[in-house]
Each structure stands twice: as structure tokens, then as C-alpha cells.
Amino acid sequence: MRRRDFLLGALTLPERSILVHEHILVNFTGANYDPGEAYRAALPKVRELLRYGCRRLQECTPNFIGRDPALLRRLSDAAGLEIWTNTGIYGAAGHKYVPGYASNESAEQLARRWVAEFRSEIKPRFIKTGVNSAPLDAIDTKLVEAASITAKETGMTIASHTSGGGPAAIQQLEILSRLNCPLDKFVWVHAQNEKDHRFHEHVAQAGAWVEFDGINEKTAAWHLECVSWMRQKGRLDRTLVSQDSGWFRPGEPGGGDYRGYTYIYTDFLPKLSDVVQRALVSSNPVEAFG
User: Fold this and answer.
1) Is residue 12 part of a domain?
2) Which of 10, 96, 158, 213 could form a disulfide with 147 if both were Cys (CB 3.0 to 4.6 A apart)?
3) Does a structural domain hold residue 7?
């Protein structure tokens, strides 16, 4: 992937913004697909982001569920937008997408795979994993351990799809602490699914990142409440937002209903002050991921 330096400089939002959790393609069924068809569906949606000042889209589709670095490189070059891919293994959804070798290999062996990808032409820029409900089982624990080892060695940040809400997020922080991995290398993905704000505050207070994603017209009021709570508690500096949008779906006619990425700019961010906007989609993403 071509690397570009988009520095914040003196520009204000939305001229240098980042979407930390979006998708181009997600292949839950393992269906064959035409990369050209996916490219044609995604390109106008990705290009549209340039009008709103977005300069980076972090594509969170994990390996074994449709991660396609070649497609992302092609889109990045055509749109003039930085698109990041990831490494790691997604353990959520009851381990349905965990490859067989992960059961036999140690956390250290899994980490060796991910570090090798970091040094390969794939060039992942963050670690994507996922866990189920607390208490975490042996596979979930191993994946978080492997992610921690990889983060320490490469400097990449861990974005963890956390199905189990606050208790599962806290247990992951305990694993990072045990392995001496800095907690600011951990992002609690899908924190909006936890309705007890005390968990949000606790995780942020520990130094990790709390990500409220899935923003759309049906969820915006709750997301605004979450952001307001974090700001009131002095934890806006550990808050991230995104939409979890996109989703070309192989196996569905035309790739299914491909959602665009602009709602956050047209409807959500305008409800917040300039200071909060810049924190959420400009300075905080750089602080969290680089």
C-alpha cells in the first residue's frame, strides 16, 4: 500500500480527518467474488470521502473474513485516499472464523505470523482481533496474548471487536497488563453495545481507547450520549467514533446494499462543537493508531 504523510498541521476539521473503523468488503460466507465488481462498487463511495476532508480510512475486515489487501491498494491509488489494512485473527462469533492452526499454535507462534505480515508487502498498520463474552475462553485469551506480543514488537495498535461488553474489555486489559503491553495500544471496538457508562469511563481511565462505532441515523442519539458522557468525565481524550459502514458482500446480488461513509460528516459531527469534532476524528485517531 502506498504510504502518504497526511499531517494535521494547522488545518481544521474536516480537512484532515480519519475514519478508524469501516469496511470495503466482508465475506462471511466464503463465496467467490470478482475483485473488479467490488472495486467498482466501492470506488465512488471512497472517492466521496475526499469532499468531506477524509484522508484515511481504516479497513477493519480481518483475515479469513474477506481481507483483500490488493483490492485496498487499488482503491487507495485510484481514490487518492489512504486505506489501512490489518493483521490478526478474529475470534468473535463463537470462533467461526478462527483457522484450525490457531488451536494448536501458541500465542508466541501466532504473533510470529502477524509480525511477519507486518514486515511483508501486505503492510498491515494495526491488529484486528475479536473475542466473545467474559470470562474469555482459552482461544480468546490466546488471541489477545498474541496481539499483545505483536503490538509490543511492532508498535501497532490492537483493535478488538469485543462481543462481551465491559467485562470482556476489562479482562483484555488484564491480559495486556500481565504481558506488559501498554494499555494505550488497546482499542475497545463496539463499546457502544455496553449500556453501562461506568465501564466506558473505567477503560478510558486505565489508558485504553473506547470506540463507539456503528453510527447511523438509528443510533446517532445514543452515540451522542456516549460522547457527551466521556467528555463530562474528562475522557474525551480516549474516545473514538466511526460507522462500521461499507460492506460489499460476496454472494449477494451486486454485492448487496453497499452503504456509504458520509453520514458521520453530514449528520453526526455537525451536532458537536469544533473542539469535540477535531478530537474524535482528527487528533484522537492519530494518537491511537499513528
Assistant:
1) no
2) 158
3) no
Q: Indicate yes or no: pTM above 0.90.
A: yes
Q: Quick: pLDDT tens for 37-49.
A: 999 999 999 999 9
Residue 216 lies in a domain: yes
User: Distances from the Cα of 226 to the Cαs of 106, 118, 197, 240, in angstroms?
Assistant: 37, 33, 7, 11
Burial of 72 (C-beta count, 10 Å sphere; 0-12/13-18/19+): buried
Closest CA to 178 of 148, 205, 206, 200: 148
Say if residues 232 and 209 touch (Cβ distance below 8 Å): no
CA distances from 174 to 141, 155, 171 (A): 10, 19, 5
E-strand stretches of the chain: 17-22, 54-59, 82-84, 86-87, 126-131, 157-162, 186-189, 209-212, 239-241
Assigned C-alpha cell, 115 = 509480525
- Counting the structural domains of the chain, the total is 1
**CA torsion angle for 98, 189, 287, 63 (degrees, to 10)?**
20
In order of 7, 50, 177, 211, 281, the CA distances from 15 in angstroms are: 10, 9, 36, 22, 11
Q: Kindly report the CATH number assigned to the domain that includes residue 209.
A: 3.20.20.140
Give the domain extent around 55: 17-289
CA distances from 197 to 102, 193, 229 (A): 34, 10, 7
DSSP state of 61: P
4 lies in a domain? no
